[in-house]
Amino acid sequence: MNSKRVLIAGDSIAGSTLAFWLNKYSSDETLVERSPSQISGGQNIDVRDAAFKVFERMGIAKEILAANTGELGIQFIDDKNRIRASFPANGADRFTGEMEIIRGDLVNILYDHTKNNVKYLFGKYITALDDNDMRVKVTYSDGEQADFDLVIAADGVRSKTRELMFGNEAELKYIGIYNVYLTISKTHTDTNWAKWYNAQRSRVILLRPDKDGSTRASFSFLSPDNNYQEFPREEQKKFLIAKLTGAGWEAPRLSKAIADSDDFYFDGVSQVKAPRWSKGRFAMIGDAAYCPTPISGMGTSLAIIGAYVLAGELSQTEDYSKAFGSFEKKLRPFVKSVQSLPPGAPWIVHPKSKWGVNILNTLAGAIASDFINGISKIFKGKPAAKQKTILCCLIINVWVFENFN
Question: Which residues lie below 8 Å from residue 52, measured CB to CB, with a gap of 6+?
């Protein structure tokens, strides 16, 4: 690929990874981000499998591992603060990834490795795009205009750049759950274990450690799609505090933190289903193109892999349309598999009744037990169909108790 002027919208993991690799292939990149400065904070994310290999090839894997949150694993907690199940980070059924890192820390590492070669524009965003076949004329929020050969959207699930490129083609498939994320002060009750707590009425509180002496918290609940994320901030606070009322465990602490904070993220959880990922000189990657939701555990890895594949395809040919087509052909089957959520997700981990909560905690304890791990070793390598049958039986048991008790 001869040097092309490429504009990337979004200082995201996908955006910065793409900028890194395009620069390796002699491209001229600009990255535009509406936030006034480098993004920091955020929640725990993990990097898995092929994405880990991409970071190794970038030479930053050790640096990312050094920024690990130190999470030892995850524990299921009941309403009496008893540990009902523990899944260590190094266990066979681990929830904690090898590369467990705060999102902002990863973005900052990527920024440090691209800032000398990539032009970053903070505090502005794209308001208009004109693809005239020869180039793309871009208009920014401050009125400035510039020309680029290609424009790539990497600015998240509710991407405004995607709308400018494709209109309303992409479907945001709401999966039935709302989530709020925030950082709270660490107390003596917090440890280096993540703690998962289920409350009646399909509510979940999750507390996770970081390396900065604070605690990353999230609160999720099942709900119809009522556009709560569009409420004014103060209305969101009142709604979330009311939703936490009576939940028990650390709910009062979380309610106070929400009341005192404006730095929280609240949204419905949705997958992005787009019929195409490119159009003319436009393309999109990461959550803007194919968000699988946090439930998949693969959103970050998918963003990294997608950026790597797209950069590789663009490096192989001067025909950007051919590169875009090859990128989608190679990646879409993988995206489809990742977006196929486990049976019963998300309601199976958000039981509505006391019976359901007790059953979930009991099942988690059984799965984490030495006995079950021993049985798992005996049956290791059994067909996937048999594993799915066992999982479906567990789901049916939860459903029966939820609906008939």
Answer: 61, 98, 99
Give the pLDDT of residue 38. Answer: 79
**Is the Cα torsion angle 219, 224, 229, 233 positive or negative in sign?**
negative
Q: Return d(Cα 324, Cα 24) in angstroms, integer.
A: 18
Is the separation of the CB atoms in 86 and 368 below 8 Å?
yes
Cβ neighbors of 385 (< 8 A, separation 6 or more) are none
How distant is the alpha carbon of residue 301 from its chain centre?
9
Q: What gap in Å lies between CA 363 and CA 343, rounded to an integer? A: 16
Return the amino acid letter for 288: A
Domains of the chain: 5-70+101-171+272-339 (3.50.50.60), 175-270 (3.30.9.30), 347-404 (no CATH)
Per-residue tokens: 294: 């946090």
Say if CB 106 and CB 90 are below 8 A apart.
no
Tell me the pLDDT tens digit for each residue of 301-346.
999 999 999 999 999 999 999 999 999 999 999 999 999 987 777 8
- What is the model's pTM? 0.88
